[in-house]
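Possible regression after last week's pipeline update?

I re-ran a chain I had predicted before the update to compare outputs. Posting the input and the new output here so someone can diff against the archived version. Not blocking, just want to make sure nothing changed silently.
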Amino acid sequence: MASWIIAGLGNPGSQYDGTRHNVGFWLLDQLARDLGTSFTVQKKYHGELAQCDLGEHKLYLLKPLTFMNRSGQSVAPLANFFKIPLQNILVIHDELDLPPGTVRLKRDGGHGGHNGLRDIIAQSGGKDFLRCRLGIGHPGDSRLVSDYVLSKPSPTDREAIEMAIENMLKILPDVLSGNLDKAMNWLHSQ
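New output (post-update):
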């Protein structure tokens, strides 16, 4: 049975619930509900952790409680403890450069200015992990980005993001089984 870490990035605290920056948490919360599992705080991994199986895969669902910019301080210790290679880590994060409702998969690559990815790369010593990029849109002016990502989306944008999450969850078994091209082709056709 292959083990995977699925890390959804976000910020802890009720003031960040429902914000664009927390779409990684949104996806993990939905996945945990779908799989009938729940999260518990695990101090040694600096996060909330849920464990479950999906088909032939053992999943460690991780919501780092380190704040976005220090996500690697949660992901790396979990991966090290369970000896999970970078190739079996899927990181879900918000993506300013994609419109709400869009989801894209990517393996490897840089951090693209995303501080959560930057820290995971730094703490884990590599970048060969999968990324699920959930589009949240861009406010149109780089000076507005910080307030934008930390605010709640409009009802229309929230509905679009939730649909993107549903689409991602539909193809998750293909992703975990290594059928990345099939998964990406289906996602990109939506």
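Follow-up from reviewer: compared with the archived run. The first helix runs from residue 23 to 35. Marking as no regression found.
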